[in-house]
Amino acid sequence: MDLKHILIPVDFSLPVLAAAADARKLASQTGTRITLLHVRPGLGGDDPATASPASRGDWIACATGGDAVRVVQGLESILAGLSVQQYVLQGDPSEEIAEYARDTGVDLIIMPTRGVSAVRRFLLGSVTAKVLHDVDCPVWTVVHDTRIDGAATLPALGRVACAIDLGPESERILRWASNFAGRFEAALTVIHASPQLEPVLGVVHDPEWRASVGAVLRQRIGKLNADTGVGAEVKLVGGEPGKAVSAAAGELKADVLVIGRPAADRFLGRLRTNAYAIIQHSPCSVVSV
């Protein structure tokens, strides 16, 4: 797993500080270079391949809005001592972000997914959703933390959770999660959610039948562990996958949750129902691979 170049899209709102904090956790251990990219909405579009880094003056000139000064100061403080460059482009934000990632060989995009208000924190921002649909590299979406506003003491990554549905992409997702966890010496737990494991009021459920379903699922995950040489812990949970996986990640106190993003579909893009719900409800950062 290459992790040489991290991209953080910056709109100068407070949630981007949480993205910078997660980027620091990764870059401080790997020497990864970080690019901060601000896209000014406008007609046409700049060519990311020929763009030059912005001066500090040009960068600050783009910082508009009530929290912009705090965000600029916070970014400088959180990312101090790391290899960081700032770029300013013009065009459609999601398109410019995706094009920049493709043209410059970005290995990981880290960006906020929730707003600050009680309503917006359950919505996936339109730019984030489009980036998740359009890019090929992994996308790391973060939960906004109002406590992050400067050089905070950031805990190391201690536990990685990996959600799989036992579909054809499960082996690829598990290998990615295992390589990532190994690189940061973090524990790895596989999560699988199945509605068949959850009793439903008013419906007859045989505990022995649920136990047999659980045994079959553990056997299949065990084979996947053996085939990949991963040997991760396993957590089975009952319920609707979107909410059940997120709740399980919370119970594990996972620092990041790895999920799959299907290949692009002409009409549906990459982000499907369960992935969308997991990103919405997850109590920790989610990396979609």
Indicate the radius of gyration in whole angstroms: 20 Å
- Which topology of the largest domain does CATH recognise? Rossmann fold
Low-confidence stretches: 115-123, 266-270
Q: What are the secondary-structure elements, in order, as H or E?
A: EHEHHEHEHEEHEHEHEHE
Task: Give the gist of this structure.
The chain is built from 9 helices and 10 strands. A 10-stranded mixed sheet has the order 3-2-1-4-5-10-9-6-7-8, sandwiched between helices. The longest helix is centred in the C-terminal third of the chain and has 22 residues, at 207-228.
Describe the structure.
The chain is of the alpha/beta class. The chain folds into two domains: 5-142, 3-Layer(aba) Sandwich (Rossmann fold); 159-288, HUPs (Rossmann fold), CATH 3.40.50. The protein contains nine helices and ten strands. Strands 3-2-1-4-5-10-9-6-7-8 form a ten-stranded mixed sheet, sandwiched between helices. It starts with a strand and ends with a strand.
